[in-house]
Amino acid sequence: MAALSDYRARVSSHYDETLHEVIERVASAGSLGKLDIGALYFWKRIPQGKWAADLMVLPESTVRAITAKAVVAASDPTATIPNAGRAARAALRPLPGFKTGDALASAAIVAAAPDRMAVYDRRAHKGLKRLGLKLANGSDRYSRYMTLIEDLRAELNSHGFGTRTAREIDLALYWLGR
Fold it and tell me: Which of 63, 76, 166, 174 makes the best surface tag, with the fewest CB within 10 Å?
């Protein structure tokens, strides 16, 4: 967990304020709106594409109906975390910007279920590789990523590092892969 400690020592404690504000809004509303997605987009520093214009022309009610399904799926206490992640990721696919790639989708999923899910990005993927863990690109990557996150949580707990959240694991992976 040296990577997590190093991350916390070097990155401003204010960096995740945007994410935490979106988490609070999702907890209250039960869905994400375009404003929330825009905030996550800014937080993830994702280059803008055509999808943003396509998203903006959708009615807010459509965006919220789609994201509400993802919130329910990510928070489903009867599903394993990888299966909940898979269902939440699938629920988001109809939205522009969520068809491919898992960076923005995972941020939305974390906003929906911050105590269960982890953020995925290329740096976290590189962090896994540095640990000798393989995560192939392609279909169902987010669910497979969450399986690895859960495995890492269990491994750390078994070696006396205590119970770590999925978010703490993704932060450590991000820091390893930067």
Answer: 76
Residue pLDDT, tens place only, 58-98? 888 999 999 999 999 999 999 999 999 999 999 999 999 99
Q: Are 142 and 106 in contact (CB under 8 A)?
A: yes
Question: What type of residue is 76?
Answer: D
Q: What is the pLDDT of residues 159-175, one digit of tens each?
A: 999 889 999 999 999 99
Please give the structure tokens belonging to residue 166.
């999925």
CB 108 within 8 A of CB 40: yes
CB 30, CB 71: distance < 8 Å: yes
pTM above 0.90, yes or no: no
User: What angle, 0 to 180 degrees and rounded to 10, lies between the N-to-C axes of helices 81-92 and 141-158?
Assistant: 150
Q: How far is CA 125 from CA 78, 84, 138, 170, in A?
A: 27, 20, 13, 9
Domain ranges of the chain: 2-177
